[in-house]
Design goal:
The protein has about 250 residues and is mainly beta. The protein contains three helices and 17 strands. It starts with 6 loop residues before the first strand and ends with a strand.
């Protein structure tokens, strides 16, 4: 019996490029090749501005867009739960995304610029998989934050792009999500340069029968953490189980 055990998360409005992972499904004795869609990481134009260098110092994965109109910063102020810095050109701060209010560790950071840039991100020390919620695999916390911020500003999101400021050489990332009752096997091509292996889920996950726990505070939403190279070696099959999503940030060699 064929069982669909892996879902590939594909955010809206992303330019998608092909990536192939070899996985084993169910109890099959033979590996099957599946076409995975790697999501492109594209450096934003505003990152060329010396005044935007703070992103390299503090940001990890970001989601961004450029509106087709100027942003009224006075109106944008209502988005923020806390404002860290405000000038006549931009505001930097944080806010709680709907569905995660009351979970302060899930608050996203936000940058809005009068020129129309809207950027939502987590900090560089946060595993990339923190943006994934097992309760809503149709989007990411960052993507949801971008939509909410733009809505409050009075605009719709014209497009969505992702970029990771700590891995400037990475050109793609992929999200693999699965249900707790259906483990899967994965093998990453040795030709790929993997910059980060991270996970998000409910509780802990098991990789090759090794239990791996992540960051979690009492009362906070979900669990997430990093996987080491030893946990997911390239060119080896690995068994993954638990209610979780894996996020790989990489570059095709």
């Amino acid at each position: 019996m064929k069982v669909k055990i892996v879902k590939v998360f594909l955010p809206l409005s992303i330019v998608l490029l092909a990536l192939t992972f070899t996985i084993w499904q169910g109890n099959s004795e033979q590996p099957k090749k599946a076409g995975w869609m790697g999501i492109s990481l594209i450096k934003p134009a505003f990152a060329q501005d010396p005044n935007a260098s703070f992103f390299e110092d503090e940001a990890g994965m970001v989601v961004y867009t450029l509106l087709d109109k100027k942003i009224d910063l006075k109106r944008a102020e209502s988005v923020f739960k806390a404002i860290e810095k405000e000038t006549d050109k931009y505001i930097i701060g944080s806010f709680s995304v709907s569905g995660f209010k009351g979970y302060s560790k899930e608050d996203v950071h936000l940058f809005v610029h009068t020129d129309g840039w809207v950027v939502v991100y987590y900090l560089k020390q946060d595993p990339t998989a923190k943006m994934i919620s097992m309760q809503n695999l149709g989007s990411t916390k960052l993507n949801m934050g971008l939509t909410e911020a733009c809505s409050t500003i009075g605009a719709t999101v014209p497009y969505v792009r992702y970029y990771h400021f700590q891995y400037p050489d990475a050109d793609k990332f992929i999200v693999l999500a699965k249900s707790q009752s259906q483990p899967f096997r994965i093998m990453m091509p040795i030709s790929f340069v993997i910059y980060e292996r991270s996970w998000s889920g409910s509780g802990s996950i098991n990789v090759d029968n090794k239990s791996i726990s992540g960051s979690s505070d009492s009362g906070q939403f979900g669990t997430y953490g990093l996987l080491s190279t030893a946990d997911l070696k390239p060119d080896d099959f690995h068994n993954v189980s638990g209610n979780c999503a894996l996020v790989l940030v990489y570059r095709e060699s």
